[in-house]
C-alpha cells in the first residue's frame, strides 16, 4: 500500500508508484494541520488496521524493523540499527537501536519484536496481514494452532533478534516495513485487550492524544522519537463526519489543510477549471487496481462460467467516464507499471451476449439475484450503480448494500464473506512495489481466512506454490525471470476469474496554502499515502 489514506489508501489520492523524491518544504518545524474524513477510523491496531483511512495514522504511531527513505522506494533500517542475511537468504539477524522507547516510557527490546510477530500470526488476532509473515519458520503451526510461538524467531540478546525463514523470500525486508510487522508492547496490548486499537501505544513519531468516536482524533508529537529531525509537526487533528463536498469547501476557505477523502468527483472539473484552485491540486500515479470480488465458495459464484460471465458483463470504459477519466481500464490484477504485468494480455472483453450465453450454460438462463457491497463515499455508490446496470443487462439482479467502509471490510472479511464487493475506496494499492503484494493478501489462500482481505475467498493451492517459487528467486540477476513467473501466476488467476479487474486509478487531492508547495504533502511511494513524520506547515 502513500497519502493520508491507504488500501486503499485510495481516497486521498496519492499512490504508491510516485517514484520521484520530493524535497521537504522550507518551513519551520512545529505547528499543526487539520485533515477531514467522512467516516470514523476503524482501528489503530497495526496487526488489524488495513484500509486507506487508518494506514498513515498507524505508521505515525508505530515503527517496524525496516523503513523507507522519505519519498522513495528505497528500504533502510528502522527500529533495527543494522541487519545481516545468511548466504542462503533464509536467516536474518537484526541489531536493534539503542534508546528506542514506547510511548509509555519503556525501552523496546528484542522480546517485543518476537511478541509482535507472534501476535500477528496468531489466528486469534485475526490479522488480515498474517500471510505476509508466512515465510517465517513455524508460521503454519501458528496458524493451525499447533504452536503458540514462531520457531523461526529467536531472541539472541535484548538488542538482537534472529528470524529464520522456511524458504527464501525476496520480499521479506519489505514486509518488515509493513504495519503487520510493527512493534507493540505486550503489557499495553494485554491491558487494553480488544480495545488496543482504540488505545494504541507504539514507538512512533506521534502518540494518540485524543479520540472522540465519530468526531475527532488528535495525534501529538513524540518528543522522544528516535529519528533526528522528525516529526516536523507538533499536532495533527483529524475531524470526522465531514462530507467530502463540505471538506473541499473548507479547504478552499482555509479552514482545513487536507481533505482526507480527496476531491469529490462531482467537483473535479470545477476545481481543475479554476487556475487558482488547480494550483493547490496534488496529483500522483499509483500501483492501484480497483476490482469486483465474487465469493467463489458460495453459489452461484462457485461456478467458473458465472464468474466469467460477470467479467464479460462489465463496461469498464463507461465506469472510467464516471470518474472523469481519472483511470485506465484494467484486464488483470497487476497495474501496468508493476513488474509481472502481462503486456498484450486480452483478458475478458465486454460482451453482453457472450455473458448471457455463459449464464445459460451455467443453468441461469434468466439470471439470478445477489448483493453488491459498496463503500458509501462518492463516487463509489455511483460506480456500483453502473455495475448494477451492467449486471441487470445480462439478467443478474444485484441489490446494493451501501455501507461505511469499515462495515464493507468487515463483511468481506467475515467467515461467510459477501457475495460481491466493489472495492472502490478500499481497492488495492501496493504495500511495496513487488508483484507478490497483489497476490498473497488478496488472492492467496492465506488471505481467504476470516479477517483477511481475500474477499473472493479464492484459494488455488497450485498457484500458491508457483507464487512461493517466484518469491524464492532472491537473486537480483533473476529479476526478469521472476517477473515472468509472476505474470504466469496472474494469468492463472484470470483463468479462474475470482475478480473483475475494473480500472487502474490516478489520484488527486488538495492542500491548503498553509501546507506550502507540493512537497509539503510529503508523499511516500510505498505503503502509505502521506508520511506524517515529514509533513510540514508554515
TrEMBL record:
Grouped into one coarse class, the protein's main location is periplasm
Instruction: Name where it's found.
Output: Periplasm
- GO-annotated cellular components: ATP-binding cassette (ABC) transporter complex; outer membrane-bounded periplasmic space
Signal sequence, renumbered to the chain: 1-27
Q: Does the keyword Lipid metabolism apply?
A: no
Q: Which SUPFAM superfamilies did the record assign? A: Periplasmic binding protein-like II (SSF53850)
Q: Which GO terms describe its molecular function?
A: peptide transmembrane transporter activity
Q: Name one GO biological process term.
A: peptide transport
* Pfam families attached to this UniProt entry: SBP_bac_5 (PF00496)
Transport: is it a keyword of this entry? yes
Domain Solute-binding protein family, chain residue ranges per copy: 74-448
Q: What family is this?
A: Belongs to the bacterial solute-binding protein 5 family.
Record protein name field: ABC transporter substrate-binding protein
Q: What high-level taxonomic lineage is stated for the organism?
A: Bacteria, Pseudomonadati, Pseudomonadota, Alphaproteobacteria, Hyphomicrobiales
Amino acid at each position: 500500500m502513500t497519502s493520508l489514506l491507504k488500501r486503499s489508501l485510495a481516497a486521498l489520492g496519492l499512490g504508491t508508484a510516485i517514484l520521484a523524491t520530493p524535497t521537504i518544504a522550507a518551513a519551520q518545524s512545529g505547528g499543526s494541520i487539520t485533515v477531514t474524513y467522512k467516516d470514523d477510523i476503524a482501528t489503530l491496531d497495526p496487526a488489524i488496521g488495513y484500509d486507506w483511512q487508518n494506514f498513515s495514522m498507524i505508521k505515525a504511531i508505530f515503527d517496524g524493523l525496516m523503513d523507507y527513505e522519505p519519498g522513495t522506494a528505497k528500504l533502510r533500517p528502522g527500529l533495527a540499527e543494522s541487519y545481516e542475511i545468511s548466504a542462503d537468504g533464509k536467516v536474518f539477524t537484526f541489531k536493534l537501536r539503542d534508546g528506542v522507547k514506547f510511548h509509555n516510557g519503556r525501552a523496546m527490546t528484542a522480546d517485543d519484536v518476537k511478541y509482535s510477530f507472534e501476535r500477528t500470526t496468531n489466528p486469534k488476532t485475526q490479522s488480515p496481514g498474517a500471510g505476509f509473515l508466512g515465510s517465517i519458520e513455524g508460521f503454519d503451526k501458528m496458524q493451525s494452532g499447533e504452536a503458540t510461538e514462531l520457531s523461526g524467531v529467536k531472541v539472541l540478546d535484548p538488542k538482537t533478534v534472529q528470524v529464520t525463514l522456511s524458504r527464501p523470500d525476496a520480499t521479506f525486508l519489505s514486509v518488515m516495513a509493513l504495519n503487520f510487522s510493527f512493534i507493540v508492547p505486550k503489557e499495553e496490548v494485554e491491558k487494553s485487550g480488544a480495545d488496543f486499537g482504540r488505545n494504541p501505544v507504539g514507538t512512533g513519531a506521534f502518540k494518540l492524544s485524543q479520540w472522540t468516536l465519530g468526531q475527532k482524533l488528535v495525534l501529538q508529537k513524540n518528543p522522544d522519537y528516535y529519528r533526528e529531525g522528525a516529526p516536523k509537526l507538533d499536532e495533527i487533528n483529524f475531524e470526522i463526519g465531514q462530507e467530502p463536498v463540505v471538506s473541499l469547501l473548507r479547504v478552499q476557505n482555509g479552514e482545513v489543510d487536507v481533505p482526507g477523502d480527496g476531491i469529490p468527483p462531482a467537483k473535479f472539473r470545477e476545481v481543475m477549471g479554476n487556475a487558482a484552485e488547480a494550483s493547490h491540486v496534488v496529483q500522483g500515479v499509483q500501483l492501484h487496481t480497483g476490482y469486483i470480488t465474487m465469493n467463489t465458495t458460495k453459489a452461484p459464484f462457485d461456478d467458473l462460467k458465472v464468474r466469467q460471465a460477470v467479467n464479460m458483463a462489465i463496461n469498464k470504459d463507461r465506469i472510467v467516464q464516471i470518474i472523469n477519466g481519472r483511470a485506465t481500464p484494467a484486464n488483470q490484477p497487476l497495474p501496468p507499471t508493476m513488474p509481472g504485468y502481462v503486456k498484450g494480455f486480452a483478458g475478458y472483453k465486454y460482451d453482453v451476449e457472450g455473458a448471457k450465453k455463459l449464464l445459460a450454460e451455467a443453468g441461469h438462463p434468466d439470471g439470478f439475484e445477489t448483493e453488491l457491497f459498496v463503500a458509501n463515499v462518492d463516487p463509489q455508490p455511483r460506480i456500483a450503480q453502473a455495475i448494477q446496470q451492467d449486471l441487470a443487462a445480462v439478467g443478474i439482479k444485484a441489490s446494493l448494500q451501501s455501507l461505511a467502509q469499515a462495515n464493507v471490510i468487515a463483511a468481506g472479511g467475515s467467515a461467510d464473506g459477501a457475495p460481491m464487493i466493489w472495492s472502490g475506496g478500499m481497492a488495492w494499492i501496493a504495500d511495496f512495489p513487488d508483484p507478490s503484494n497483489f497476490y498473497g493478501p488478496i488472492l492467496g489462500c492465506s488471505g481467504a481466512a476470516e479477517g483477511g482481505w481475500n474477499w473472493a475467498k479464492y484459494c488455488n493451492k497450485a498457484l500458491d506454490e508457483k507464487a512461493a517459487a517466484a518469491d524464492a528467486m532472491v537473486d537480483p540477476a533473476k529479476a526478469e525471470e521472476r517477473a515472468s513467473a509472476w505474470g504466469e501466476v496472474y494469468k492463472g488467476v484470470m483463468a479462474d476469474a475470482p475478480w473483475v479487474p475494473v480500472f487502474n486509478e490516478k489520484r488527486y487531492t488538495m492542500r491548503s496554502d498553509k501546507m506550502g508547495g507540493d512537497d509539503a504533502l510529503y508523499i511516500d511511494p510505498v505503503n502509505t499515502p502521506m508520511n506524517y513524520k515529514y509533513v510540514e506547515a508554515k
